[in-house]
Amino acid sequence: MAGFRSLARQVRDPRCDLALRRYSLRKCLERFAPYGHRATWDHLCGRHRIDPEDRAPDPARLVAALEELEDARAVWLAYEDNFADRRKREKHHGLRRPGHIDDWHRRTWGGNGVARCDTPAEHPSAPLGEVLRRLIGALEAEPGEACPVCGQTHIVWRQDLEHEPWSGPVCTGCGIVVPQPLLTPQAIAAARRAAQRELASVA
Question: Which residues, 6 or more positions from 127, have their beta carbon under 8 angstroms from its beta carbon?
Fold first, then answer.
């Protein structure tokens, strides 16, 4: 099974036909997809003007999409290195039980679904690397009242998410499932109340 870097080389290789280069970019998303596979593909196609169904897209656009993905992956790999170093230090000092952020990190190992978007067409518009920098900055700060990616405060608790965690707070501004450790108990309670209001308005 080819790794991310091998696939990235195929995306860049002008000797490969465009269908293979496009396929290789899609396969890269099986190794690293911050919003989840479908939402990350939708994001890259939109930002780089690639028709999602085009089997022979402009190679320059494919490479630009790959470069955005690579930048985000570099941000995430640096975070994972720092995370591993921190856990080693904590274990050395006798702290064996992981915290809430560590539990979230376990579900996103490898960078898949770091800022998961449950609805593929609803995702942040900023470059992937910038989104991950904002998210990681929030991981290193105190919990807040707003979405760490877009700053919106209208967050709604959803019970029927497609991936683990199967329920959680979703930002209605940018579409990400907000990691619970990044929100205060008050913000989570407000998200649950917002969901109840939505249910009441539908009933």
Answer: 47, 68, 71, 72
How far is CA 30 from each of CA 4, 149, 154, 174, rounded to the nearest angstrom? 9, 23, 31, 22
| pLDDT of amino acid 147 | 97
**So what's the pLDDT on residue 1?**
64
User: E-strand spans in 107-195?
Assistant: 155-158, 168-171
Q: Which amino acid is at 108?
A: T
pLDDT tens, residue by residue, 145-191: 999 999 999 999 999 998 888 899 999 999 999 999 999 999 999 99
pLDDT: is 195 or 109 the higher one?
A: 195
How far apart CA 60 and CA 47 sit, in angstroms, is: 13
Q: What is the dihedral of CA 41, 42, 44, 45, to 10 degrees?
A: 110
Write the CA distances from 52 to 21, 44, 46, 58, 100, integer angstroms. 14, 9, 9, 12, 37
Count of positions (residues) in the chain:
203
Q: Got the DSSP string for 100-122?
A: HHHHHHHHTTTSTTTT-BSSTT-
Residue whose entry in the numeric block shows the structure tokens 């992956």: 73
Q: What pTM value is reported for the model? A: 0.89
Q: How many whole angstroms separate alpha carbon 115 and alpha carbon 118?
A: 10
At residue 150, what is the residue type? C
